[in-house]
Design brief:
Layout: H1 5-8, H2 11-42, H3 49-72, H4 78-102, H5 107-131, H6 133-136, H7 140-159, H8 169-190
């Protein structure tokens, strides 16, 4: 094991540095999610060519964010968080593949895949937030986001069993996630990235 420059920083400096990276990631992810939600809503929630492309593209946002976040993890107790983020990237990759393969089977299949992915990712997010409390503080907005993602995932699977399931709720799901990401980023800025 080689001591990195980040590991050698004082704890307060490492926390501020980590908080800055996470805050930027939250903002970037929120911007992409808002754009996605607007595009999907404009497509009317139908399985058109545009909405199919958007549905397959959405997991890429999560994959990219998880990998960037994992690569930014340094210092004390970063290993478990990094592993969780990489596992989440793997789960999102699975969702991407499943959507690409099965998207032509109809809205019900899409909702089942999206629902399973949202529920699992929500639980992973809750775990990551709890692991990061010593570094970034309570992160209430991200706790709420993880819980809502899990609940939304379950509800998507329930909606999928309807006789004529609609995909319009997916835009609202992405939009709400973006709002909570912005709230979390604002909280990190207000608290100085969890200063001790």
């Amino acid at each position: 094991y080689t001591l990195s420059l980040h590991d050698a920083l004082p704890i307060s400096a490492a926390r501020r540095s980590g908080g800055l990276s996470v805050r930027r990631l939250y903002i970037g992810r929120a911007i992409l999610a808002i754009a996605w939600a607007a595009g999907f809503a404009a497509a009317g929630g139908q399985l058109s060519t545009t909405s199919k492309l958007l549905l397959v593209a959405y997991p890429i946002i999560d994959i990219t964010a998880s990998v960037i976040d994992a690569r930014s993890q340094r210092g004390l107790n970063s290993g478990p968080v990094q592993r969780l983020l990489l596992v989440n990237a793997g789960v999102s990759t699975g969702a991407l593949i499943a959507l690409a393969v099965a998207i032509d089977q109809g809205p019900s299949t899409v909702l089942h895949i999206f629902g399973a992915w949202a529920a699992i990712s929500g639980l992973m997010q809750l775990t990551v937030v709890l692991r990061r409390r010593p570094q970034l503080g309570r992160q209430s907005a991200m706790l709420v986001s993880g819980a809502l993602s899990t609940i939304a995932g379950i509800s998507f699977n329930v909606l999928a069993t309807a006789s004529d399931p609609k995909l319009t709720s997916l835009a609202g799901y992405a939009g709400l996630g973006a709002v909570l990401s912005i709230a979390a980023a604002s909280r990190l800025r207000a608290t100085g990235a969890a200063q001790p």
